[in-house]
Design goal:
414 residues, alpha/beta, Rossmann fold, 4 domains, 6-stranded mixed β-sheet, 10 helices, 18 strands, 30% strand, elongated
Length: 414
């Protein structure tokens, strides 16, 4: 509990008035000073009850939506429930949005809270970055009616919103990727158990008639067959995102924003083309792995980007991706292509030994990078030398190193 400037002035004024009234034998001044002192004491006793009531408050947060696209608006509602028997005469409520949630108006309200009653505070925010945004911190500064005393309390009212990266409505024009998109295993679909092109683990949506029960008896896993003409190219998409990328450029077009939009657009194009795409995104220290579960982009994108906190990224070297196939339960050679989404700045800071590890595990590696203003940070000559060095280190395991021909920056919103 803190005494405010008003409280100090009131206390000092009442004491001076009492002392001056006694010294001058002025009964009126003495009575006035005593009255001011009694008011101060009454406010103090009143605030001790307010303090107990504030400590018992329950705050609940409701979010209009839990999944949106980046740059979309979301409504936030805080409900404050006073379960005590004492009113809170005045309370300053401050909600503290996360870093990339831009409030339309300041999330501050001054209100009174009656006993056994609830009040709600609503405002809107724009989510300025892909990933998961955690709304949590609420600060309340309660005071008595005259504002002589205050108490600051911090509450936790968690709520999560995942913003999916914007997807460019254009074709991915990278030549190597185009060669892979829509590739099917060539052959004649004869049908029957003995015309099998491949056997893989069962995925939701697969035809149960294609379950290989003999494989289930041996392995203890549901396996399905893919006949010739039905087998689809399998892609492993590795998304490398670093925390410092959010500081390259300005919001909403930092290098992190652009790279996530590129990865999301590439994923959408691959799924539309009927490819089987396993995905891994590095967040914090380890990759979060999402095996293919169907061609629905929205649910796939949510599973991927909900594990990435907006403004955060990977703190480990790129060789952590070498363990991804084992997490999925597949061999690295079972993929027709492994696409690593990264950028020249990240490559320049990486230890060459980590590239060697990638090349030893993945023998069909494509390094894909979004268009960006890299020349502001590295000269074209430096970038060319860097990419030649990367290709040299990876040797025969590299398929290609390419930049997207599309830009992924968006116009800024007010």
């Amino acid at each position: 509990m803190k005494i405010t400037l008003y409280g100090v002035v009131s206390l000092v004024l009442s004491v001076i008035t009492i002392l001056y009234g006694l010294a001058s034998e002025n009964l009126l001044l003495y009575s006035l000073g005593l009255a001011l002192l009694l008011i101060f004491y009454k406010e103090y006793k009143s605030f001790t009850r307010v303090k107990k009531a504030v400590e018992k408050l329950a705050i609940e947060r409701r979010l209009e939506r839990s999944v949106v696209s980046e740059l979309d608006d979301v409504g936030i509602t805080l409900t404050i429930d006073n379960r005590g028997l004492d009113a809170i005469p005045r309370a300053l409520v401050v909600d503290i949005p996360p870093r990339y949630a831009k409030a339309k108006a300041k999330p501050i309200a001054i209100t009174s809270i009656p006993p056994q009653a609830s009040i709600s505070i609503t405002y809107r925010v724009t989510l300025m970055a892909p990933g998961t945004h955690l709304f949590d911190k609420v600060v309340m500064i309660a005071s008595d009616f005259l504002g002589y005393f205050t108490e600051e309390l911090h509450y936790s009212a968690k709520g999560y919103v995942t913003a999916l990266p914007l997807v460019a409505r254009v074709d991915i024009s990278m030549k190597t990727v185009q060669k892979v998109l829509g590739v099917n295993v060539m052959g004649k679909a004869i049908g029957g158990l003995y015309d099998i092109a491949d056997i893989r683990e069962y995925q939701p949506g697969d035809n149960i008639k294609k379950i290989v029960w003999r494989a289930y008896a041996k392995m203890g896993k549901l396996m399905v067959r893919e006949d010739y003409g039905e087998s689809r190219a399998r892609i492993l998409l590795l998304i490398d995102i670093r925390p410092w990328l959010w500081d390259i450029g300005s919001t909403p077009n930092t290098l992190a924003h652009v790279q996530l939009r590129f990865a999301s657009s590439l994923l959408a194009a691959m799924l539309r083309s009927g490819l089987v795409v396993d995905t891994a995104i590095c967040s914090e220290l380890m990759p979060k792995v999402m095996p293919y579960q169907g061609e629905d982009y929205e649910s796939t994108a949510y599973r991927i980007f909900s594990v990435l906190d907006a403004g955060e990224g990977c703190h480990s070297p790129m060789n952590v991706f070498t363990n991804v196939p084992s997490y999925i339960g597949r061999g690295a050679t079972s993929y027709d292509l492994v696409a690593l989404i990264t950028n020249p700045l990240a490559l320049a800071l990486e230890n060459p030994r980590d590239f060697t590890a990638l090349g030893e595990v993945f023998n069909k590696l494509l390094i894909a990078m979004p268009m960006f203003r890299y020349e502001e940070y590295l000269s074209e000559e430096s970038i060319l030398k860097l990419l030649n060095r990367v290709a040299e280190v990876l040797g025969g395991s590299i398929v290609d190193i390419e930049f997207s021909e599309e830009g992924f920056e968006v116009s800024k919103r007010a």
